[in-house]
Amino acid sequence: MRIILQNLTKCFPSRNKKSNEIVTAVKDLSIEIPDGKLIGLLGPSGCGKSTTLYMICGLQKPTEGKIYFGDSDVTNLEPEHRGVGLVFQNYALYPHLTVKQNILFPLQNLKGAEKLSKDEMLNRAQHAADLVQIGELMDRKPNELSGGQQQRVAIARALVKTPRVLLLDEPLSNLDARLRLQTREEIKRIQRETGVTTVFVTHDQEEAMSISDMIVVMKNGVVQQVGEPQKVYDDPDNLFVAQFLGTPPINTFDGVVTGGKLYIGNDCIADVPGVEDQPVAVGIRPEGFIPADDGGLSGRLINVEVMGRDCSVVFANEKSRKPSVRAIIDSDLKIATGGDNAIRFNIKRNKVFIFNNETGERIRF
Amino acid sequence: MNKDLKKPKNRISLKGDLDGRNQYKAWLYLSPALILLLIFSFYPLINTFRMAFANGYNGLAIVGGETFDFGIENFKTVVNYVDFKLCLKNTLLLCVITVPISTVLALLIAVALNSIKPLQKIYQTIFFLPYVTNSIAIGMVFNAMFTRVGLGDLIQTQGIINNIIGIFGIGPINFVNVGSSWGANMFVVCTYIVWNAIPFKILVLLGGLQNVNKQYYEAAKIDGTSKLRTFFKITIPLVSPMLAYVIITSFIGGFKEYSSIVGIFGEGMGPGGNGQMNTIVGYVYNMLPKSNLGNASAASLILFGIILIVTAINGYVSKKKVHY
Q1: What domain range is B316 assigned to?
Q2: Contacts for A247 with CB less than 8 Å, ≥ 6 apart
Q3: Nearest CA-CA distance, residue A130 and chain B, Å
Q4: Inter-CA distances, B74 with A78, B82, B289, B301, Å
Q5: Predicted ipTM?
Q6: Domain annotation covers residue B62
Q7: Residue of B nearest to A159 (CA)
Q8: Most Cβ neighbours (<10 Å): which of A128, A310, B2, B272?
Q9: To probe the interface with A, which of B117, B218, B223 has the most A CB atoms within 10 Å?
């Protein structure tokens, strides 16, 4: 099911009753979610991504704008008529019901022509449970399950009525690191097997990048960039997106463009033909550094952290916006330091981005 | 073992302290509470058992140095006493009628209160008012509402309730005046007890409802659960611990019913003091001025036994039905 969000805006009245201020959680959001894909809504907390999810499922009504599922306008449709499955952040499994009863619950609500026979319901519940691999846990209560198992039950409950759209609210945030890795593969597998259009919300860029077919980066209720994870990473539209994606995060510098050349301090690091002379923000991905004696960028070595396959070179540069700059380089490469720990790098051209100093918009070269 | 591990363990050991010369300190600190408990709780409790099992125990006779045989004569007397049977019947009926009605009403009101936003606090206060009002005073007001003033041709009013139901062409009914029927009395007392019992139950149940995670309702809504099914399959199970608490305590309270009847009918425990609305606790109080402490103790123990059994049944049922 293709989902189209058109100029979606959601305002909340301010908590502070005295001031009649209105908080805008989502502002003029328009995206198209293709059928059968896994989409990650990504952004820092408070950026409106959960609100967007709740508007898609119908628990919150948009202040303005339209939501389409396929060709039908569902903006004013109640959640139960939209055919969505929602997995809550803390799963919201009914604590007094067993796993089986929890999964059966949505089916028992069906009325009229959709009503299923008992056997049919049990079959569907078992099928959903097998899909998420909790078939043996059917008679347990939720409090007898681990976090990961509860998560699977919640997904099974959302999937059992074969929804047109599956929505996941921070699905991995309550799991420990190891389980998180495992579960995100699992979500990807379940999505692929069922082919259901899936939207999930996360603040963890790694999580979003690793499993999504498409990511939507949001900030303060406004969409910053939409696209395939790798493309957004390689070609960010603005400084916020560049900083938000990638671990370790991108290194940022105060730079200046003069005469078609990009300078950081006195170091010329790239040719940028056609860019007007102006002060800019420069972002360099950690993997964009190549140690070289005659390299363009200079720095003073602070520390080298060896991490097996790669090593992370931490150095200082006075134009860096943070106290230290982090470069990830192949651990085979030798790092030669001159006197006073001086160190030089060449910069990979496709790993350097420059941004307008005021607006943060990308300046392409 | 490691020295460092052992040392602090010895220092914080309670047993070590109490075994030694410091033990008296513990008893010293506990003594105010212990002395009061011993005099006013434990001694009367034990004495009740002693008096109940002393045949024909009599408060006056014991002053004369008379001794009593051990036996169950008191129980036999109590059980065979016509008044006691009436008291038992009244008490059981009051419980069976008022506990379910007040619990269901309280649950409905609590759910309604929980679902409204504006004025919720004000309504909460209004519903809670009866709880902070003296039950004898409320009883007297109820009496005034149901009572007829004047006699024969000189009747001035039939009471506000009769006036209201008179609009619908019913009555007038003699609710509480001399010559009123047992059934009419029962109706008044039950109405009063339900009205008086609801506030506390609303308070407890509302607390339970407000603790239910809203996401359960959101999840149910997305799954298209009807309101009725949500109420029975989600709300009730999730507040079942509070429901169990409310039901058990109100059964216990119901068996000890006394002051409400005094409030409505006075110490005569019935219209014109005929005692037809008497309860077990009322019976116990009646026995006391007659120095019939043996019978009073036996009746108390019977009440104790009934409450014990009912509470045990409640506990057994709630183990199966309550989801903690």
Answers
A1: 73-321
A2: A205, A206
A3: 21
A4: 69, 14, 17, 11
A5: 0.81
A6: no
A7: B223
A8: A128
A9: B223
Q: Render pLDDT for B293-308 as a digit per residue (tens, 0 to 9).
A: 888 888 899 999 999 9
Give contacts of B237 with chain A, Cβ < 8 Å. Answer: 94, 96
Q: How far is A82 from chain B (nearest CA, A)?
A: 8
Question: Which of B215, B224, B237 lies at the smallest CB-CB distance from A96?
Answer: B237
Specify the number of domains making up chain B: 2
Chain A residues touching B224 at Cβ < 8 A: 79-81, 106, 109-110
Cα separation, B236 vs B253, whole angstroms? 23
Give the CATH number of the domain where residue A79 resides: 3.40.50.300
Q: Measure the CA–CA gap between B11 and B193, rounded to whole angstroms.
A: 55
Residue B64 placed within a domain: no
B220: domain CATH number is 1.10.3720.10
Look up the domain containing A269 and give its range: 251-363
B222 to A84: CB separation less than 8 angstroms, yes or no: yes
Establish, for the pair of chains A and B, how many residue pairs have beta carbons separated by less than 8 Å: 55
Select from B222, B229, B323 the Cβ nearest to the Cβ of A95.
Answer: B323
The pLDDT value recorded for residue B152 is 66
CB of A9 closer than 8 Å to CB of A75: no
Say yes or no: B198 and B244 in one domain: yes
Residue B114 shares a structural domain with residue B255: yes
CA distance A292 to A267: 14
Residues from chain B contacting residue A110 (CB–CB below 8 Å):
224
**Residue of B212, B218, B222 for testing the chain A interface, max A β-carbons within 10 Å:** B222
Distance from CA of B244 to the nearest CA of A (A): 15
Tens digits of per-residue pLDDT, B222-246?
A: 888 888 999 999 999 999 999 999 9
Residues A156 and A77 occupy one common structural domain: yes
- Whether residues A131 and A255 share a domain: the answer is no
Q: Is residue A269 located within the same domain as residue A130?
A: no
The answer to whether residues B118 and B243 belong to one domain is: yes
Residue A236: pLDDT band by 50, 70, 90 thresholds?
very high
- The minimal CB distance from A80 to the residues B215, B221, B233 is found for B221
Q: Let me know how long chain A is.
A: 365
- One domain, residues B77 and B27: no
